[in-house]
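Example: ATP synthase mitochondrial F1 complex assembly factor 1.
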Amino acid sequence: MAFKLRHFSNSYIVLNRLSCRNIMTSPTKLEKAVEQLQKNPYYEKYADRIATLQKTSPREFLQRLEDQQKTKQKEKEKKLGAIDTRQFSSVLHPKETLSKDLIVEDKKLEAILKLDLVTGKDASDIQNIWEEYHKNKEVISATIPLDVYTTVHEKMKDYPTFLFPLPRSEGYEFILCQCHGHTVHFTPLLAFQVHKENAPECLTMIHYTELGHKGIVLMRGEYDKNVLNGQEAQCLANQFQMYFCGKDLTKQHLLETFNKKPDAFKHMDLVTELENISLV
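Written out as structure tokens, the predicted fold is:
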């Protein structure tokens, strides 16, 4: 899953035949119109035609500029209206305050999967059942080899907090992850800065270890569809996997720096790491 930043090409002027209306053609307005027009990167290409139209039909010249400005304004309003506001919902609506003495326990696999139904099945069969069960659900899931998860869990304890950049249309949004037990809570950094411990999760990944004796750990991630879509949730899960179960020395250094030397940590190093890989 690769991500690309969107970019917009420079706008340019196309002079079509327009009906003339009674509009102002004062010298001042003409001068301002031409001055604005000359800033367009395609001005030189059409300069002769524009000059001719300006001299022979100044009314039509201004009319075309006026219509072009209206079109540009409509496009600007359309872009502003299309901005994805999902990421702000968590900032506006904090979760209910919990008692400091409350102990939050990991959820149990039995609530999702009847364990007696898989007692006689091997790891491969259980993986197929797990994948089939979640295939049409708006969640992310995975089956992790026990030895791999053992490494992941050790890092979760050593580095309980970390940060991931999430590609957005306007750049990147940083998502904070906090590990507790076998659960990973993801929260938009902005929401955490506003609401602290009451900031709601945009993604919660739970690792179910009940089938460890079969050599596997099952993972299920539930995400807030007002904040993330499925691809974005998977992007965060993939990044978590690369940092917490990979052997890349650069990523290991970033984990250690963030947790043990926060003053030396640089957010843009995370962006660089993401841009240098393709998420699968």
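The first helix runs from residue 27 to 37.
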